[in-house]
User: What shape does this take?
Amino acid sequence: MDDCILDDKATTNEAKKYIQCLDRNIANLKRTQKTWINKLNLDLEKIQEDTGNTQLLPIFTRSLTSHTRFLEDSCRWRYLQKMPNATQAAIVYKRCEILLLDQYIATLKQPL
Assistant: This one.
């Protein structure tokens, strides 16, 4: 994961590079998240096959949708609070997204 650093007196170009760095981190985190989601899907399908418990996968799928909405809404109000400064708003949104993706990946990694 890239260490993204932004100086308090950053120029517009430096802020742009910082946002691009945050975007790379988000892309990496989303790949990691997708890997864990795929693993859990396979694990839950196996459990369903072995036990006949058909409740797990639909609830897991619903939790994924709920988390996506939670992330978007949690970061959106922070974004809107920083408007009309679009650069600061984008930075706040992306930092929020990184934090919540990190937390969610840690949750997905918990053993079944």
Notes: Residues 12-51 form the longest helix (40 residues). The CA atoms of residues 43 and 56 lie 10 Å apart. The chain has a mean pLDDT of 94. The helical segments are 12-51, 56-82, 86-108.
